[in-house]
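Intended use. Records like the one below are meant for learning the mapping from a protein sequence to its folded structure. Do not use them to infer anything beyond what is encoded.
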Amino acid sequence: MKTLFVSDLDGTLLRSDETLSQFTIDTINELTKKGMLFSYATARSLVTAKKVTKGLNSHIPLVVYNGTFVMDNVTGEVLIANYFDDVIKDVIFDLVKENIYPIVYSFIDGVEKFSYIPEKCSVGMKAFLDTRKGDKRTNEVGTVEDLTLGKCFYITCIDEPSKLEPLSEKYKDRYRVIYSKDVYSDYQWLEIMPKAASKANAILQLKEKLGCDRVVSFGDGANDIDMFKISDEAYAVGNAIDELKNIATGVIESNNEDGVAKWLNENIKALLELENNE
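Structure written out for the chain above:
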């Protein structure tokens, strides 16, 4: 039985300071060297995901933007992609009509960009954008029309719950919508993706691509629920939300206690030996 192991990053594999412990790096590198197929599925882009996972030697494709893309970890090539159709322009104008100015992720002339109007940023958006200073994808624009340029694949809104929750309800049936608080702050996020984009769909496609029989996953938040539902085994870290713990195969130690790496270290060596002998 060939197994694909998939972990969320923020709040799961990463500690609360957005870093990997040396123990986690060494454990995963040792096990992948012995044959473990390990990937991660994250809301992050490949750019920021690779920054916080520096030191990991996993070379198989990665699930980014909550399943909007599956990308080659070495070349950055998009292997599986989900884009909005042109109707998403109406959604952007609708958000602005409600005084919500989003960050819009698109490929513009073939180059990945995230666009926003600086003078319209909420406090939460400013805090988030401060963490992305120097990012080559930054695209400051002056008009709402500019936000609609290119092939759009992801929309992020960071604002007051009273403004975002009604829109979450409005769009949840038409698009893939995640309404949750940021794991590192108290800011409310509303993320809108193409309907087909999800960690679950991307992992199932990756599972088939790699010829795996099983999926074992690890997570902490609302955007991991669909991933847990398609996994053969799913483990919630100790700091995970109750909704995720309730559907998990088991609850392991928290992200700050290297829960994922400890579980892998304790459970996978024997499995790898069994797989290698088959």
